[in-house]
User: Fold this.
Amino acid sequence: MSASPGQSELEALIDSALKEALRIGASAADAAVTVDSGLSVTVRLGEVETLEYHRDRGLGITVYLGQRKGSATTSDVSWPAVAETVAKAVSIARYAAEDAYAGLPDPESLAFGYPDLDLSHPWALEADEAIGLARESEAAALAYDKRVTNSEGASIGTHSGIKVYGNTLGFIGGFPSTYYSLSCVVVGSQDEQMERDYWYTSSRTREGLEDPASVGRTAAERTVRRLGATRIATTRAPVLYTPELARGLIGHFLAAIRGGNQYRKSSFLLDAAGTQVFPSFVQMHEQPHVPRGLGSAPFDGEGCQTRDRALVRDGVLDGYVLNTYAARKLGLKTTGNAGGVHNLSVAPGPLDFDGLVRRMHRGLVVTELMGQGVNGVTGDYSRGAAGFWVEDGAIVRPVNEITIAGNLKDMLRQVVAVGSDVDRRGSLQTGSILVEEMTIAGE
Assistant:
Protein backbone atom coordinates (compact mmCIF):
# COMPACT_ATOMS: atom_id res chain seq x y z
CA MET A 1 0.00 0.00 0.00
CA SER A 2 1.27 3.51 -0.78
CA ALA A 3 2.73 5.85 1.88
CA SER A 4 -0.50 7.84 2.05
CA PRO A 5 -3.40 5.61 1.02
CA GLY A 6 -6.53 7.33 -0.21
CA GLN A 7 -10.10 6.43 0.58
CA SER A 8 -10.52 4.10 -2.41
CA GLU A 9 -7.43 2.11 -1.39
CA LEU A 10 -8.70 1.82 2.18
CA GLU A 11 -12.12 0.68 0.97
CA ALA A 12 -10.42 -1.99 -1.14
CA LEU A 13 -8.40 -3.11 1.90
CA ILE A 14 -11.54 -3.42 4.01
CA ASP A 15 -13.27 -5.37 1.24
CA SER A 16 -10.34 -7.78 1.04
CA ALA A 17 -10.23 -8.22 4.82
CA LEU A 18 -13.94 -9.03 4.97
CA LYS A 19 -13.68 -11.53 2.12
CA GLU A 20 -10.73 -13.18 3.85
CA ALA A 21 -12.73 -13.49 7.08
CA LEU A 22 -15.55 -15.27 5.24
CA ARG A 23 -13.07 -17.46 3.35
CA ILE A 24 -11.51 -18.84 6.53
CA GLY A 25 -14.77 -19.60 8.28
CA ALA A 26 -16.40 -16.48 9.72
CA SER A 27 -20.15 -16.25 9.30
CA ALA A 28 -20.03 -12.44 9.46
CA ALA A 29 -17.49 -9.68 10.05
CA ASP A 30 -16.96 -5.95 10.19
CA ALA A 31 -13.77 -3.90 10.00
CA ALA A 32 -12.56 -0.33 10.23
CA VAL A 33 -9.33 1.30 9.13
CA THR A 34 -8.05 4.78 9.96
CA VAL A 35 -5.14 6.81 8.65
CA ASP A 36 -4.29 9.99 10.56
CA SER A 37 -1.58 12.62 10.36
CA GLY A 38 -0.91 15.93 12.01
CA LEU A 39 1.40 18.43 13.63
CA SER A 40 1.56 19.49 17.28
CA VAL A 41 3.61 22.42 18.58
CA THR A 42 3.93 23.86 22.09
CA VAL A 43 5.76 27.10 22.82
CA ARG A 44 6.55 28.20 26.39
CA LEU A 45 8.00 31.62 27.18
CA GLY A 46 8.80 32.06 23.52
CA GLU A 47 10.81 28.85 23.21
CA VAL A 48 9.74 25.71 21.41
CA GLU A 49 8.99 23.09 24.05
CA THR A 50 7.59 20.32 21.84
CA LEU A 51 7.34 19.82 18.10
CA GLU A 52 5.78 16.59 16.94
CA TYR A 53 4.65 15.20 13.63
CA HIS A 54 2.46 12.13 13.82
CA ARG A 55 1.29 9.66 11.23
CA ASP A 56 -0.82 6.81 12.54
CA ARG A 57 -2.73 4.02 10.88
CA GLY A 58 -4.55 1.03 12.17
CA LEU A 59 -7.10 -1.61 11.27
CA GLY A 60 -9.47 -3.47 13.54
CA ILE A 61 -11.65 -6.41 12.59
CA THR A 62 -14.42 -8.24 14.45
CA VAL A 63 -15.56 -11.62 13.24
CA TYR A 64 -18.51 -13.79 14.21
CA LEU A 65 -18.75 -17.54 14.20
CA GLY A 66 -22.47 -17.73 14.75
CA GLN A 67 -22.88 -15.99 18.11
CA ARG A 68 -19.21 -16.26 19.02
CA LYS A 69 -17.19 -13.07 18.59
CA GLY A 70 -13.48 -12.35 18.17
CA SER A 71 -11.62 -9.09 17.55
CA ALA A 72 -8.06 -8.18 16.61
CA THR A 73 -6.19 -5.03 15.59
CA THR A 74 -3.01 -4.10 13.76
CA SER A 75 -1.06 -0.92 13.09
CA ASP A 76 0.48 -2.51 10.00
CA VAL A 77 -1.96 -2.20 7.10
CA SER A 78 0.10 -4.16 4.60
CA TRP A 79 -1.88 -7.11 3.27
CA PRO A 80 0.16 -9.88 4.97
CA ALA A 81 -0.32 -8.20 8.37
CA VAL A 82 -4.02 -7.64 7.75
CA ALA A 83 -4.55 -11.25 6.68
CA GLU A 84 -2.77 -12.43 9.83
CA THR A 85 -4.96 -10.13 11.94
CA VAL A 86 -8.11 -11.58 10.37
CA ALA A 87 -6.87 -15.08 11.16
CA LYS A 88 -6.20 -14.09 14.79
CA ALA A 89 -9.73 -12.71 15.15
CA VAL A 90 -11.22 -15.94 13.82
CA SER A 91 -9.03 -17.96 16.18
CA ILE A 92 -10.19 -15.88 19.15
CA ALA A 93 -13.84 -16.30 18.16
CA ARG A 94 -13.51 -20.08 18.23
CA TYR A 95 -12.80 -19.90 21.98
CA ALA A 96 -15.34 -17.20 22.85
CA ALA A 97 -18.57 -17.89 24.67
CA GLU A 98 -21.79 -17.55 22.71
CA ASP A 99 -23.66 -14.28 23.15
CA ALA A 100 -27.25 -14.16 21.95
CA TYR A 101 -27.03 -10.40 21.36
CA ALA A 102 -23.79 -10.39 19.35
CA GLY A 103 -23.76 -9.71 15.64
CA LEU A 104 -23.85 -7.11 12.93
CA PRO A 105 -26.54 -4.40 12.82
CA ASP A 106 -29.84 -5.12 11.12
CA PRO A 107 -29.41 -4.36 7.39
CA GLU A 108 -32.23 -1.80 7.37
CA SER A 109 -30.35 0.36 9.90
CA LEU A 110 -27.25 0.75 7.70
CA ALA A 111 -26.45 4.03 5.92
CA PHE A 112 -26.20 2.73 2.37
CA GLY A 113 -26.75 6.30 1.16
CA TYR A 114 -25.12 9.01 3.27
CA PRO A 115 -24.41 12.74 2.80
CA ASP A 116 -21.12 14.56 2.28
CA LEU A 117 -20.85 16.77 5.37
CA ASP A 118 -17.86 18.86 4.21
CA LEU A 119 -15.67 17.74 7.11
CA SER A 120 -12.27 17.90 5.42
CA HIS A 121 -10.44 21.19 4.91
CA PRO A 122 -6.69 20.50 4.59
CA TRP A 123 -4.27 23.10 5.93
CA ALA A 124 -0.63 22.60 4.98
CA LEU A 125 0.67 24.13 8.21
CA GLU A 126 4.45 24.06 8.37
CA ALA A 127 6.41 23.98 11.64
CA ASP A 128 7.71 27.56 11.33
CA GLU A 129 4.23 29.00 10.84
CA ALA A 130 2.83 26.88 13.69
CA ILE A 131 5.57 28.12 16.02
CA GLY A 132 4.84 31.69 15.00
CA LEU A 133 1.11 31.35 15.70
CA ALA A 134 1.74 29.82 19.12
CA ARG A 135 4.26 32.55 19.98
CA GLU A 136 1.78 35.22 18.90
CA SER A 137 -0.87 33.80 21.22
CA GLU A 138 1.46 33.51 24.20
CA ALA A 139 2.99 36.95 23.65
CA ALA A 140 -0.46 38.56 23.62
CA ALA A 141 -1.26 36.84 26.92
CA LEU A 142 1.99 37.90 28.61
CA ALA A 143 1.56 41.49 27.41
CA TYR A 144 -2.03 41.76 28.63
CA ASP A 145 -1.28 42.64 32.27
CA LYS A 146 1.89 42.84 34.38
CA ARG A 147 0.28 40.40 36.82
CA VAL A 148 0.55 37.69 34.16
CA THR A 149 3.95 36.47 35.22
CA ASN A 150 4.40 33.02 33.73
CA SER A 151 3.12 30.68 31.07
CA GLU A 152 2.37 27.01 30.82
CA GLY A 153 2.53 27.36 27.06
CA ALA A 154 0.58 27.96 23.91
CA SER A 155 -0.14 24.95 21.72
CA ILE A 156 -1.40 24.46 18.19
CA GLY A 157 -2.44 21.14 16.71
CA THR A 158 -3.61 19.89 13.34
CA HIS A 159 -5.29 16.60 12.47
CA SER A 160 -6.21 15.17 9.11
CA GLY A 161 -7.53 11.69 8.63
CA ILE A 162 -9.63 9.18 6.73
CA LYS A 163 -11.80 6.50 8.31
CA VAL A 164 -13.39 3.64 6.39
CA TYR A 165 -15.79 1.08 7.85
CA GLY A 166 -17.32 -1.98 6.22
CA ASN A 167 -19.17 -5.17 7.01
CA THR A 168 -20.24 -8.38 5.31
CA LEU A 169 -23.79 -7.07 4.85
CA GLY A 170 -22.46 -5.14 1.87
CA PHE A 171 -21.82 -1.79 3.50
CA ILE A 172 -18.51 -0.02 2.95
CA GLY A 173 -18.25 3.71 3.57
CA GLY A 174 -15.73 6.30 4.60
CA PHE A 175 -15.01 9.99 4.87
CA PRO A 176 -12.05 12.31 5.41
CA SER A 177 -12.02 14.89 8.18
CA THR A 178 -9.83 17.63 9.61
CA TYR A 179 -9.60 19.25 13.05
CA TYR A 180 -7.53 22.19 14.25
CA SER A 181 -7.03 23.71 17.70
CA LEU A 182 -5.07 26.48 19.40
CA SER A 183 -4.82 26.97 23.16
CA CYS A 184 -2.97 29.11 25.69
CA VAL A 185 -2.44 28.65 29.45
CA VAL A 186 -0.90 31.38 31.62
CA VAL A 187 -0.19 32.02 35.29
CA GLY A 188 -0.87 35.22 37.20
CA SER A 189 0.46 36.31 40.58
CA GLN A 190 -0.56 38.92 43.12
CA ASP A 191 0.34 39.26 46.80
CA GLU A 192 2.08 35.88 46.77
CA GLN A 193 -1.02 34.20 45.35
CA MET A 194 -0.86 32.43 42.00
CA GLU A 195 -3.72 31.46 39.68
CA ARG A 196 -3.83 29.90 36.24
CA ASP A 197 -6.43 29.81 33.50
CA TYR A 198 -6.68 29.08 29.79
CA TRP A 199 -8.57 29.58 26.57
CA TYR A 200 -8.77 27.66 23.33
CA THR A 201 -10.32 27.64 19.89
CA SER A 202 -11.12 24.69 17.62
CA SER A 203 -12.56 24.20 14.16
CA ARG A 204 -12.59 21.92 11.15
CA THR A 205 -11.22 24.82 9.06
CA ARG A 206 -8.27 27.18 9.42
CA GLU A 207 -10.61 30.12 8.94
CA GLY A 208 -12.84 28.96 11.78
CA LEU A 209 -10.16 29.41 14.43
CA GLU A 210 -10.10 32.49 16.62
CA ASP A 211 -7.23 34.90 16.10
CA PRO A 212 -4.16 33.64 18.07
CA ALA A 213 -3.71 36.96 19.89
CA SER A 214 -7.38 36.92 20.91
CA VAL A 215 -6.96 33.45 22.40
CA GLY A 216 -3.96 34.65 24.41
CA ARG A 217 -5.69 37.78 25.66
CA THR A 218 -8.76 35.81 26.73
CA ALA A 219 -6.57 33.34 28.64
CA ALA A 220 -4.82 36.25 30.37
CA GLU A 221 -8.07 38.05 31.15
CA ARG A 222 -9.53 34.91 32.71
CA THR A 223 -6.37 34.42 34.77
CA VAL A 224 -6.21 38.00 36.08
CA ARG A 225 -9.88 37.90 37.10
CA ARG A 226 -9.13 34.99 39.42
CA LEU A 227 -6.40 36.79 41.37
CA GLY A 228 -7.32 37.64 44.95
CA ALA A 229 -9.57 34.59 45.29
CA THR A 230 -10.68 33.64 48.81
CA ARG A 231 -12.73 30.89 50.40
CA ILE A 232 -16.33 31.43 51.44
CA ALA A 233 -18.36 30.15 54.34
CA THR A 234 -20.24 26.89 53.81
CA THR A 235 -23.73 27.59 52.53
CA ARG A 236 -26.49 26.49 50.17
CA ALA A 237 -26.99 28.70 47.13
CA PRO A 238 -27.67 28.69 43.39
CA VAL A 239 -24.78 27.58 41.15
CA LEU A 240 -24.20 28.86 37.62
CA TYR A 241 -22.08 26.61 35.39
CA THR A 242 -20.29 28.50 32.60
CA PRO A 243 -20.79 26.93 29.15
CA GLU A 244 -17.53 24.96 29.07
CA LEU A 245 -18.42 23.38 32.45
CA ALA A 246 -22.13 23.05 31.69
CA ARG A 247 -21.01 20.72 28.91
CA GLY A 248 -19.63 18.38 31.59
CA LEU A 249 -22.91 18.47 33.49
CA ILE A 250 -24.78 17.39 30.34
CA GLY A 251 -22.07 14.79 29.81
CA HIS A 252 -23.02 13.11 33.11
CA PHE A 253 -26.61 13.02 31.91
CA LEU A 254 -25.54 11.41 28.63
CA ALA A 255 -23.49 8.78 30.43
CA ALA A 256 -26.57 7.86 32.48
CA ILE A 257 -28.72 7.27 29.38
CA ARG A 258 -26.16 5.28 27.40
CA GLY A 259 -27.39 1.82 26.59
CA GLY A 260 -24.49 0.08 28.30
CA ASN A 261 -25.20 1.73 31.64
CA GLN A 262 -28.92 1.05 31.23
CA TYR A 263 -28.64 -2.69 30.62
CA ARG A 264 -25.97 -3.04 33.31
CA LYS A 265 -28.33 -1.18 35.67
CA SER A 266 -25.55 1.21 36.61
CA SER A 267 -27.31 4.52 36.01
CA PHE A 268 -28.96 7.10 38.24
CA LEU A 269 -31.51 7.48 35.42
CA LEU A 270 -32.37 3.79 35.15
CA ASP A 271 -35.49 3.17 33.02
CA ALA A 272 -36.01 6.93 32.72
CA ALA A 273 -37.16 7.00 29.07
CA GLY A 274 -40.52 8.72 28.83
CA THR A 275 -40.17 10.39 32.22
CA GLN A 276 -39.59 14.01 33.27
CA VAL A 277 -35.84 14.40 33.78
CA PHE A 278 -35.47 18.18 33.30
CA PRO A 279 -37.90 21.09 33.75
CA SER A 280 -40.37 21.44 30.89
CA PHE A 281 -38.47 24.29 29.19
CA VAL A 282 -35.40 22.12 28.50
CA GLN A 283 -35.00 20.82 24.93
CA MET A 284 -32.08 18.78 23.52
CA HIS A 285 -31.56 17.84 19.90
CA GLU A 286 -28.98 15.75 18.13
CA GLN A 287 -28.10 16.93 14.60
CA PRO A 288 -25.45 14.64 13.09
CA HIS A 289 -25.53 16.15 9.59
CA VAL A 290 -24.51 19.76 10.28
CA PRO A 291 -21.98 20.70 7.57
CA ARG A 292 -18.49 21.14 9.07
CA GLY A 293 -19.86 20.33 12.54
CA LEU A 294 -17.28 19.18 15.07
CA GLY A 295 -19.52 16.26 16.01
CA SER A 296 -20.95 15.56 12.59
CA ALA A 297 -20.90 12.03 11.17
CA PRO A 298 -22.67 10.60 8.10
CA PHE A 299 -22.88 7.21 9.84
CA ASP A 300 -21.91 5.83 13.23
CA GLY A 301 -19.15 3.43 14.21
CA GLU A 302 -21.22 0.46 13.00
CA GLY A 303 -22.21 1.96 9.66
CA CYS A 304 -25.70 2.75 10.93
CA GLN A 305 -27.65 5.80 9.83
CA THR A 306 -27.26 8.91 11.92
CA ARG A 307 -30.31 11.15 11.99
CA ASP A 308 -31.75 14.18 13.71
CA ARG A 309 -33.61 13.34 16.88
CA ALA A 310 -35.07 15.06 19.92
CA LEU A 311 -33.32 13.52 22.90
CA VAL A 312 -35.17 15.64 25.46
CA ARG A 313 -38.54 17.13 24.61
CA ASP A 314 -40.19 19.53 27.08
CA GLY A 315 -37.95 18.09 29.79
CA VAL A 316 -38.97 14.49 29.04
CA LEU A 317 -36.31 11.95 28.05
CA ASP A 318 -37.31 10.73 24.60
CA GLY A 319 -34.98 7.72 24.50
CA TYR A 320 -31.54 6.32 25.18
CA VAL A 321 -28.20 6.58 23.37
CA LEU A 322 -27.79 3.14 21.79
CA ASN A 323 -25.51 1.07 19.64
CA THR A 324 -26.71 -2.23 18.19
CA TYR A 325 -25.61 -4.47 21.07
CA ALA A 326 -27.10 -2.29 23.81
CA ALA A 327 -30.31 -1.89 21.82
CA ARG A 328 -30.71 -5.66 21.54
CA LYS A 329 -30.05 -6.12 25.25
CA LEU A 330 -32.82 -3.62 25.96
CA GLY A 331 -35.22 -4.92 23.31
CA LEU A 332 -34.92 -1.69 21.31
CA LYS A 333 -33.46 -0.44 18.01
CA THR A 334 -30.08 1.25 17.58
CA THR A 335 -30.19 5.04 17.60
CA GLY A 336 -27.07 5.36 15.43
CA ASN A 337 -24.88 6.28 18.40
CA ALA A 338 -22.10 3.70 18.25
CA GLY A 339 -19.21 5.96 19.21
CA GLY A 340 -21.27 8.61 20.98
CA VAL A 341 -23.61 11.49 20.24
CA HIS A 342 -23.24 13.78 17.23
CA ASN A 343 -23.75 17.55 17.65
CA LEU A 344 -26.01 17.47 20.68
CA SER A 345 -27.35 20.93 21.47
CA VAL A 346 -29.22 22.22 24.49
CA ALA A 347 -31.73 24.83 23.30
CA PRO A 348 -30.67 28.26 24.61
CA GLY A 349 -32.89 30.51 26.65
CA PRO A 350 -33.32 34.28 26.28
CA LEU A 351 -30.78 35.38 28.94
CA ASP A 352 -27.08 35.88 28.26
CA PHE A 353 -24.44 35.24 30.94
CA ASP A 354 -24.88 38.62 32.62
CA GLY A 355 -28.64 38.14 32.58
CA LEU A 356 -28.27 34.77 34.33
CA VAL A 357 -26.02 36.34 36.97
CA ARG A 358 -28.66 38.97 37.63
CA ARG A 359 -31.37 36.32 37.81
CA MET A 360 -29.30 34.26 40.24
CA HIS A 361 -28.97 37.35 42.46
CA ARG A 362 -26.78 35.58 45.04
CA GLY A 363 -24.72 32.46 44.50
CA LEU A 364 -21.71 30.89 42.84
CA VAL A 365 -20.44 31.08 39.27
CA VAL A 366 -18.31 27.98 38.65
CA THR A 367 -15.42 28.36 36.20
CA GLU A 368 -13.24 25.40 37.22
CA LEU A 369 -13.96 21.92 38.57
CA MET A 370 -11.46 19.49 40.09
CA GLY A 371 -11.59 15.87 41.17
CA GLN A 372 -13.75 12.98 40.02
CA GLY A 373 -16.35 12.80 42.77
CA VAL A 374 -19.27 11.67 40.60
CA ASN A 375 -21.11 8.40 41.17
CA GLY A 376 -22.93 7.43 37.98
CA VAL A 377 -25.05 4.83 39.78
CA THR A 378 -26.41 6.92 42.64
CA GLY A 379 -25.97 10.35 41.05
CA ASP A 380 -24.04 11.63 44.07
CA TYR A 381 -21.93 14.59 42.97
CA SER A 382 -19.08 16.32 44.81
CA ARG A 383 -16.38 18.32 43.02
CA GLY A 384 -13.69 20.76 44.04
CA ALA A 385 -14.45 24.13 42.47
CA ALA A 386 -13.35 27.69 41.86
CA GLY A 387 -15.14 30.65 40.37
CA PHE A 388 -16.84 33.87 41.46
CA TRP A 389 -19.25 34.86 44.19
CA VAL A 390 -22.32 36.86 43.23
CA GLU A 391 -24.24 39.33 45.42
CA ASP A 392 -27.18 41.48 44.35
CA GLY A 393 -26.95 40.18 40.78
CA ALA A 394 -23.30 41.09 40.22
CA ILE A 395 -19.96 39.30 40.55
CA VAL A 396 -18.20 40.66 43.64
CA ARG A 397 -15.06 38.55 44.08
CA PRO A 398 -13.23 35.41 42.93
CA VAL A 399 -13.40 32.33 45.17
CA ASN A 400 -11.40 29.10 45.35
CA GLU A 401 -10.75 26.05 47.54
CA ILE A 402 -14.42 25.16 47.78
CA THR A 403 -16.50 22.06 47.07
CA ILE A 404 -19.92 21.91 45.44
CA ALA A 405 -22.17 18.94 46.12
CA GLY A 406 -25.59 17.60 45.24
CA ASN A 407 -27.27 14.72 43.48
CA LEU A 408 -27.34 14.75 39.68
CA LYS A 409 -30.93 13.56 39.49
CA ASP A 410 -32.00 16.52 41.62
CA MET A 411 -29.62 18.93 39.87
CA LEU A 412 -31.08 18.15 36.44
CA ARG A 413 -34.62 18.70 37.71
CA GLN A 414 -33.53 21.93 39.38
CA VAL A 415 -32.12 23.58 36.26
CA VAL A 416 -33.55 27.10 36.41
CA ALA A 417 -32.31 28.44 33.07
CA VAL A 418 -30.05 27.77 30.08
CA GLY A 419 -28.13 30.76 28.73
CA SER A 420 -27.88 32.12 25.22
CA ASP A 421 -24.05 32.13 25.54
CA VAL A 422 -23.64 28.83 23.68
CA ASP A 423 -20.13 27.33 23.51
CA ARG A 424 -19.85 25.83 20.01
CA ARG A 425 -16.35 24.34 20.36
CA GLY A 426 -17.37 20.70 20.44
CA SER A 427 -19.91 18.00 19.68
CA LEU A 428 -21.94 18.94 22.78
CA GLN A 429 -23.12 22.55 22.70
CA THR A 430 -24.81 24.43 25.50
CA GLY A 431 -24.97 27.82 27.13
CA SER A 432 -24.46 28.45 30.84
CA ILE A 433 -26.70 26.37 33.09
CA LEU A 434 -28.17 27.74 36.33
CA VAL A 435 -28.99 25.17 39.03
CA GLU A 436 -31.45 26.27 41.71
CA GLU A 437 -29.46 25.22 44.79
CA MET A 438 -26.43 23.17 45.80
CA THR A 439 -24.32 22.73 48.90
CA ILE A 440 -21.18 24.86 48.73
CA ALA A 441 -18.57 23.78 51.27
CA GLY A 442 -15.96 26.35 52.21
CA GLU A 443 -14.70 27.53 55.56
